[in-house]
Design goal:
Elements: H1 14-18, E1 25-28, E2 33-38, H2 44-50, E3 61-63, E4 68-73, E5 76-81, H3 86-97, E6 103-106, E7 111-117, H4 121-126, E8 143-148, E9 151-157, E10 164-170, H5 174-186, H6 191-195
Antiparallel strand pairs: 1-7, 2-5, 2-6, 3-4, 4-5, 7-10, 8-9, 9-10
């Protein structure tokens, strides 16, 4: 039986991403395991069961040992892992939250990540995103569920300077968003880089 090769939805855009200048860099992040967690009571017991403190402030994220915990709502979080397989992460998290009345569902295939870095990234994002991206408002540890262009995304700020973000987008919208970001970046790309 032939083994199916897993390809990234943005594999065809890798060359276009590489041609961008350092002021606006786009990189397709590798697949990571993602689990959506619903849990109504968050406290010491949940933290002990999960082995991490879930963010309780709206629109924030925290790093974990091997990924991130992203606040999605008053009783909902997205947990990611770069080292666990999706089914392992789901089983571990489900075992931790089920006794607390919670639930966990593997959503790894739902979204992919795009990393945006560079001095003009905030300007590129601002062309199609209505939230305030100023670093003193949207610095490291902040997140937002918003639209970018016409795509629904989860936007994470990875730096206090506004020059490093991750956009989580549905896999089916990844190509659209990649094209949109490349087009938006043109305004902030030196003319010489466009001609190459």
């Amino acid at each position: 039986m032939a083994e199916l090769l897993r390809t990234h939805p943005l594999q065809a855009w890798a060359g276009a991403f590489e041609r961008l200048p350092d002021t606006v860099r786009l990189t397709a992040e590798p697949y990571v395991a993602m689990v959506d967690v619903r849990l109504s009571a968050v406290g010491a017991e949940a933290s002990a069961a999960l082995g991490l403190d879930l963010p309780t402030a709206a629109n924030t994220w925290v790093p974990t040992d091997d990924g991130r915990a992203v606040w999605l709502g008053p009783d909902e979080w997205l947990l990611t892992s770069t080292t666990e397989a999706p089914e392992e992460l789901e089983a571990r998290v489900r075992a931790a939250v089920l006794p607390l009345g919670g639930s966990a569902a593997d959503v790894s295939a739902q979204r992919i990540g795009l990393r945006l870095t560079g001095a003009r990234v905030r300007d590129v994002l601002a062309t199609g995103c209505s939230i305030d991206l100023h670093p003193r408002v949207f610095g490291r540890g902040r997140s937002a569920q918003t639209t970018l262009g016409q795509a629904g995304v989860v936007l994470l700020s990875l730096s206090d300077g506004g020059d490093d973000h991750v956009v989580l987008v549905r896999s089916s919208f990844a190509g659209y968003l990649a094209d949109w970001l490349l087009d938006a970046a043109l305004e902030f790309t030196p003319t010489t880089a466009r001609q190459e």
